[in-house]
Design brief:
Elements lengths: L2 H14 L3 H12 L6 H17 L8 H7 L4 H12 L7 H8 L5 H13 L6 E3 L2 E3 L11 H13 L4 H17 L7 H22 L1
Antiparallel strand pairs: 1-2
Helix pairs in contact: 1-2, 1-3, 2-3, 4-5, 5-7, 8-9, 8-10, 9-10
């Protein structure tokens, strides 16, 4: 089974298990690559349409909707966080803390923390066994870990823009998921090395 057969199988299983957000991420990652085989691209588009229909949620959420969705499945949590991120989070400190203290979806929590940082919220939040103040945390794309990892990726894939773009996306995701911790230089290099290895293997099996 080659790379594309494996990824299509994984996406299909995600949809069957109603893991729509995971399916969407896999699909969008594949569609971001310029040279996806035509038959694979057609199947990905069909899967994407299925995911959109299955995970449809009204765009405009009330405060009551947001609070309810934050404690539901992964798709609802992401929609709720998206709704929160468009608001002034200073008015939702208690709700943000409640969600960050829950057993919620780590991807959605990372997006919320990112927004708290960008809005420079000056408040001490509890997160796991630690605490953090968003105002004191550097933005993910400005961290030493991201910048060192980005440099390594760009040097390795200088002659292959499509691989570089995919690697950069994966690096940003890893840096985002590390929040509220900021990766240092060495951690960024280690993460980029793993990403480079993963992409090289993926493309090798696809060819």
């Amino acid at each position: 089974m080659n790379y594309y057969e494996e990824i299509l199988k994984e996406i299909k299983e995600c949809i069957e298990n109603k893991e729509y957000e995971q399916a969407r991420r896999l699909i969008e990652n594949e569609l971001s690559v310029p040279y996806v085989p035509r038959d694979v691209e057609r199947q990905l588009q069909e899967f994407l349409n299925t995911v959109k229909e299955a995970s449809f949620i009204p765009r405009s959420l009330t405060d009551e909707d947001i609070e309810k969705y934050l404690f539901m499945d992964e798709v609802h949590q992401l929609m709720a966080v998206d709704g929160l991120n468009k608001r002034n989070l200073r008015e939702y400190i208690d709700l943000c803390q409640k969600y960050l203290s829950s057993q919620g979806y780590i991807n959605a929590k990372a997006l919320l923390i990112d927004s708290l940082i960008r809005q420079e919220i000056n408040h001490e939040f509890s997160y796991g066994e630690d605490s953090f103040n968003p105002k004191e945390i550097i933005r993910p794309e400005e961290s030493a870990g991201f910048l060192s990892g980005l440099k390594a990726i760009q040097e390795r894939f200088m002659k292959d823009p499509s691989m570089m773009r995919m690697a950069e996306q994966l690096l940003y995701k890893e840096v985002l998921l590390a929040l509220p911790k900021a990766l240092d230089h060495d951690e960024g290099i280690r993460v980029s090395d793993k990403i480079i290895e993963y992409i090289l293997k993926a493309f090798e099996s696809a060819n």
